[in-house]
Structure prediction request, 443 residues.
Amino acid sequence: MTNPKIELHNRKVQEIARQMQEDASAGEKTHIDKGGVSHVVPLPRDQRRTGKPIRIKNLQDILEIDEQKQICCAEPGVSFASVLKATLPLGLIPIVVPELEGITLGGAVAGCSVESMSYRYGGFHDSCLEYEILCSDGKVINVEKDSFLFEMIHGSYGTLGILTKLTFRLIPAQPYVHLQYQKFSTFQEFQNALYEHCRVGDYPFIDAIVHSPKEFVLCLGNFTDAPPYVSNYRWLNIFYKSTQQKNEDYLSTYDYCFRYDTECHWLTKTVPFLENKLVRFLVGKFVLGSTQLIAWSKRLELLLRLKKRPEVVCDVFIPANRFEAFFQWYEKDFDFYPLWVIPYAFPKMYPWINEEYAKGIGGNLVIDCAIYGKYNGFKEVDYSQLLEEKTLDLNGIKTLISRNHFSKEKFWSVYDRSNYEKAKTILDPRGIFPDLYEKFHKK
Prediction:
């Protein structure tokens, strides 16, 4: 039986292809405009969206959920919040759910999203089975898991082609999550416990919050269907602070997946009084939540330009065998908390990583260290550049969604230029999408 949603989807893709052919002459650069709020970190005088927009905001539908096979087929503009609202009543969720409600399926692939199931399953892209891609010459191709083009699309940040449809795996879920907090006063004890739980795999959800050099909280989660109570961190209460105050907690599965959304992790710390309960009571409904906070930062873009530099908002992936060295440096030279920690095991080395650089990673387990809101207005040091340099010194990978300082030579020593250009030739033969380095290097 023909799926009418698929038929409508095909018409939408052909319309996007037609507009792309009309609007972009050969060699003229474009950018993909998905509509809504972008989860790329806002920067003063941002140059990442130059060129003519290719608007794909109509690609926002879930096309099919197969309960028996536990897979979902959807368009890239669908948010993870929408996916969970559709799958949770069926007792299913995506294997990896990024922590902010507004992150879209396509954004999670383009930016390599990870979360607390990533120590088992890798990134969201590793749970995907097939992509449909619109190439710059108007051709629509389908690529399957483990093929070269499939593996090159994730982490390409919209510079190769337009992801128009994806199929991904789901996993059984219960309505609630029981969180247990193991607390440590030394890094060594914390690291030993983190790696042991990852080795044994005794909890489906593992992440951690480092509140200070002497306060490490390992957050271990398991599904449950009979909680004695359910906490709520959607308005007055603050999730990350609760991990200091409690030894255990219960959240709905939906709220667990988006437990960091209300504060956009802890970026509310950077806004005066926004963690105050009275202020939250009066204005919280209008400003709290990642989508609203990011929208407000866009509205205040002119004020952001007055800053010497924006705050450091960045994820870096540190090889597990270098995590201790990273933290020793971080404690001494960076000194910003909370620090979010997520173990992430990729199933194989991705072809977009330079082969020589990959040898220095030394295994498939890396630790995502996420810094959100470090003040960076000092004259004598640029903490964004300092973090980037230390990450590369330890053979880590830095996400590109915020400020970048790479020279072209350094950039292509981390990323595989040969594989990228090979994929570029196939998917973007007209050369209308920006080059990965040119899109993200600091102007």
About this structure: The radius of gyration is 21 Å.
